[in-house]
Amino acid sequence: MSNLVTQAVELIYKMEGTQLQEVIEAVQLKRQYLAKQAIKKFTVGDMVQFTSKRTGGKVNATVEKVNRKYVIVSTHIGGEKWRVPASMLTHIREIA
Question: N or C: which end of the chain has fewer CB within 10 A?
Fold first, then answer.
């Protein structure tokens, strides 16, 4: 763990219930912010890659729709549709 994380954990152990609730709210707000930033990176037609929880392998796909929290993608092999969190997607270059 990094020094910053270690310090945060030590401080959390010293907190009371109301203080912990404030930390939880701050973490939730930060996660929402990061999710919104991630979703802005994708547009329909982008070629992306993600790791499948089903198979554990990498899956190449094309973005079909960008929703508020999830991106709908269609796989290149089989045309299967997946609903994937934007934070799990990475852009890939077009295959020649």
Answer: C
pLDDT tens-digit profile of 8-36? 999 999 999 999 999 999 999 999 999 89
Number of compact structural domains in the chain:
2
DSSP characters for 52-95?
Answer: -TTTSSEEEEEEEEE-SSEEEEEETTT--EEEEEGGG-EE-PPP
Cα–Cα dist 47/43, whole Å = 9
Examine the domain organization and report whether 60 and 85 are in the same domain. Answer: yes
Would residue 96 count as lying in a domain? no
CA neighbor of 71 nearest in space, from 96, 39, 41: 39
72-to-6, 12, 29 alpha-carbon distances in Å: 37, 37, 24
Residues 28 and 7 in one domain: yes
pTM of the predicted protein model: 0.72
